[in-house]
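Practice record 12: protein with 1-O-alpha-D-glucopyranosyl-D-fructose.
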Amino acid sequence: MASDRNWWRDCVIYQVYVKSFADSDGDGIGDLDGLTARLGHLADLAVDGLWLNPCYPSPGSDGGYDVVDYLTIDPVYGGTAALERLIEAAHGHGIRVLLDVVPNHCSSRHPWFQQALAEGRDAASRQRFLFRDGRGTDGQEPPNNWRSVFGGPAWTRVKDTDGAPGQWYLHLFDPSQPDFNWRHPEVRSSFVQVLRHWFDRGVDGFRIDVASLLVKAPDLPDYDPGGTRPAPDSNQPEVHEIYRQWRAVANEYGADRDLVLVGEVWVPTADDVAAYVRADELHAAFYFDLLVQPWDARAFRSSTQRGLTALNAISSQDTATQRAGVLAWTLNNHDAHRAVSRYGLISEDGSGTAGVMGPQLRRRGQVDVRLGQARARAALLFLLGLPGSIYLYQGEELGLPEVLDLPDDARRDPIWNRSGGTEHGRDGSRVPLPWQSKHPTFGFSPDTAGEAPWLPQPAYFGDLAADVQATDSSSALSLYRAALSARRRLIADLTPQVRWLPAVQGREDVVAYTRGKVTVVTIFGGTPFDLPAAWGEIVLASATLDGRSLAGPGSAWLSL
Ligand code: TEU
């Protein structure tokens, strides 16, 4: 690949939920050859890279975030050879490929965990995980009060080798996902080996799953329900040592490869996020604060500024040779309800949001899809103007809403079962993509009759299929193409400094910022707004223009 220095500082990465992107062999499950065959879609979008959700061998109890073998690709996705084909083809289009590394936990079927179970309580193999004796009479109570992100206790009790009730092991997610002990040297060295293994095969970087969770507070103290102490299961200072080591490994591959590590970092404050992109740590960290904001001018502006302020503070320590990384901005991923449905939610029914993060990411209720689509279009232009890297999630370029009404028996997310069916979980953003409107599986699977798609596609997906949108200049797909190519074209004109403009025409629902010659303006309300002549020529708009009057909700880019 051509080496354009630090491509990741302002890249646009497209997240591929492989299982739902395109199925090449008719088993109803998306795979890497399906993705390779559809690379033209991504080249036309002008994305710089792909992040693939995990496609390692896995029982799939958490969509592949329960890994059995970190060094191969599951045959269901085409095996390692299919990844090699994908990398070669993607690089041919100038598109980089990032894998997802899952270092906090593995699958309970991982050989290390199986060994730890088989060898019993005093075995050295147990030290790679977090096994503890229980509390209370006969160790019946979990070792501490931590809760699983997916609901219920974060501990599961195992049987001793003689069949008697034994120790407990920690799992911050599903019981099928035991947490590693990151204070164990073999755990550390094995993941360095994982990184090198894939870097050596041409992978351009990694998205790091739950990057802030790996190290737990010594002695695993109880969680403080009052919240006066920092959480003992997240964001421990020692976690940063891991990323300094990983950065050094990535750096070994040199400036030509310019590999990237981006952390999925859910931490309390913007300063906590920025700490992960200190010059010798990660290249980028997700700034989820913006993703969880409601559709509101003040909320978007202040969240964005919090992120920028925190990053500036870290960047103030830059030297000529050592620069801090960037924020990774995103409004969609495979864990959240799609932006169309979040921003289009007109009344909440309060159901199904009880779990951790549910209220922020997955509110349920009545959705006005058209309103949500107009707002999501506007949000895209707000996002694409920002300095740093941008992460898009497959299907958002089609304006897909969250599928909120999947049949219960189709749901696969462990959150559904762990919550006893009270939280619906994340399947609704993972429904297989519609490519062709007039096709039994909307082009997801081949023509020959095979297995049904692993999650059912709603009938209305036909109207949103890529083929109909490709020829419609007013479609979401056309806007995404125009916006990404405008970003590419104008990037050299954009300074990293974001300057907020004072409210214009008394409109508190309008937010505008400039980066050098370019102004990005977003109308959050429904009233049209006159784009001031002083802002320059209109480059692009997400909504209808009548002269210089932009319909709301909508965004525009202007350039002097
Ligand atoms: O997610 C981390 C995480 O804690 C949340 O996004 C979580 O899935 C959600 O908020 C539950 O309410 C990462 C992955 O993105 C997710 O798909 C995995 O399930 C999780 O880690 C475990 O590996």
